[in-house]
Amino acid sequence: MAKDTKERDATFEGFADADGRFFKALAKNQKREWFHEHKHEYVEGWEEPMLALLTESVRALDRAYPDCELEPPKIFRIHRDVRFAKDKSPYKTHIGGVLPMHGKNPVGSPIALYVQVGTESFAGAGQYSMDGPSLAKFRAAVLEPKRGAELGRMVTKLAAKGYRISAMETLKKVPKGVDPTHPRAELLKHKGLVLMFPAMPKGLLAKRALLDWTVTHAKAVAPVVRWLVFATA
Questions:
Q1: Which residue among 115, 119, 216, 233 has its CA within the 20 to 30 Å range from the CA of 28?
Q2: DSSP type of residue 113
């Protein structure tokens, strides 16, 4: 079966188990021989379900992005980049995947959804990091009375519902030249803007209900992601 057909027909029924037992075992067996012996467990129990979860999420989120294009899902490699790391363990103890926006780099641009499951499981959406030009546009938009206030209202409402603001890097003080008492001073300290979803309910990983949980939260934060797409373009 062709890859695009497989993705189109994917149906999410849950991951292999609710406790991530494969990844707990992998954490204790960071050897290539062990991974190759158990690779079928990873592919069938985690990689294929992740692709199915994200593929169904694309279809479910389409109307939440009427003026943006969602790219096909991207699954991150389980192999760690150990070139500059003190920890030379070859494998991650989780699997992660994203729904990138059209033509965007999933690491430094807005994404509609990021899901990670394994020894640590969570989900979120937004823009984890910003390069110089994107950060300058973001700060300018946040400082604008109308656009900035719109973002502030959205983020405040989501925070009250249990969503957490995060970024790859956060300054201790506002950028130079910005009034520390500015109403959106905290947003201006972030060099990115991600909204982390509330904690995944226990036991949900192995159930189809995880799809509904994921899509519900991704739809809730979609207006912020769209704001980022147009603010940092």
A1: 115
A2: E
Prediction pTM value: 0.91
Predicted confidence (pLDDT) per residue in 107-152, tens digit: 568 999 999 999 999 999 999 999 999 999 999 999 999 999 999 9
Structural domain span for residue 141 = 3-232
Residue with tokens 């694309």: 58
Asked if 129 and 167 touch (Cβ cutoff 8 Å), the reply is yes
Specify the 3-state DSSP secondary structure of 196. strand
pLDDT in tens, 3-48: 554 555 679 999 999 999 999 999 999 999 999 999 999 999 999 9
Count of all residues that appear for the chain in the document: 233
- CATH number of the domain bearing residue 157: 3.30.930.20
Per the listing, tokens 């780099």 go with 105
Strands (DSSP E) found in 46-129: 74-75, 94-100, 111-118, 122-127
- Residue 178 buriedness (CB in 10 A; 0-12 / 13-18 / 19+): middle
Number of domains in the chain: 1
Dihedral-angle region of residue 203 (phi above 0 means left; psi in -120 to 50 means alpha; beta otherwise): left
Q: Is 147 helix (H, G, I), strand (E, B) or coil?
A: helix
